[in-house]
Design goal:
This protein is of the alpha/beta class. The chain contains six helices and seven strands; from the N terminus they run H-H-E-H-E-H-E-E-H-E-H-E-E. Helix 5 (146-156) links the parallel strand 4 (131-137) and strand 5 (157-168). InterPro entries: Methyltransf_11, SAM-dependent_MTases_sf.
Length: 208
């Protein structure tokens, strides 16, 4: 049977869609951090997770000690450091290359209050009750063992400390809000408020 050009194009589109779907399923089943080789995507606009929206939710104050988990190339960190100055922004990432890139960018901007640390969100290398606030944006879904990561964040936050979690599409690792809330509350957080929708949101929790 002869297949026409339009039919071939249709079949090719179907196959392409199937391959993309398999990729999404694999990504959901095997979460992982954005590799350094793909760092350019970290600088793309984030309509649901803008910096000013994060600032409104986090309510950072000058002099505070704040933690960002998964800063990547510094999309938020380079601004958050200025929000808390003369306080400290601690930035933890799995990839040393990302931390090095972020710190080069910080030096170019004369930002001196970012403290980078390579480490795992499931075993934070910080003392108990050592931060006023913490945030992670488009990061929690990349962690294998999200419950452990949330328990660690609760441990390092002071009583009443603030945690902001941001998630949005088209990230294949996106954590739905309902699942996030149940996990965060099981880890010892109290839900405060949320901005956004099912397409993308920022949620604020309090420790204890």
């Amino acid at each position: 049977m002869k297949i026409r050009g339009r039919q071939l194009a249709y079949l090719a589109a179907l196959m392409g869609g199937a391959v993309a779907l398999v990729g999404v399923i694999r990504a959901r089943c095997a979460p992982s951090a954005c590799p350094y080789s793909q760092r350019v995507v970290l600088e793309l606009p984030r309509p649901f997770l803008g910096r000013e929206r994060l600032r409104r939710m986090l309510e950072p104050l000058p002099g505070e000690r704040v933690l960002e988990v998964g800063p990547g190339s510094g999309y938020y960190a380079l601004h958050a450091a200025q929000w808390v100055a003369p306080g400290e922004l601690h930035a933890l990432d799995l990839q040393q290359e990302m931390l090095d890139l972020m710190m080069r960018r910080a030096r170019e901007r004369d930002i001196t209050n970012i403290y980078p640390q390579r480490g795992d969100a499931r075993e934070l290398p910080y003392a108990d009750a050592s931060f006023d606030a913490a945030y992670l944006v488009a990061t929690l879904g990349e962690v294998e063992g999200q419950d452990a990561a949330l328990r660690e964040l609760r441990r390092v936050l002071k009583a009443g400390g603030r945690l902001v979690v941001g998630e949005s599409l088209p990230d294949p690792h996106m954590v739905p809000f309902g699942l996030l809330r149940s996990r965060a509350e099981a880890a010892g957080f109290r839900f405060q408020r949320r901005e956004g929708s099912s397409l993308g949101y920022l949620a604020l929790f309090r420790a204890g």
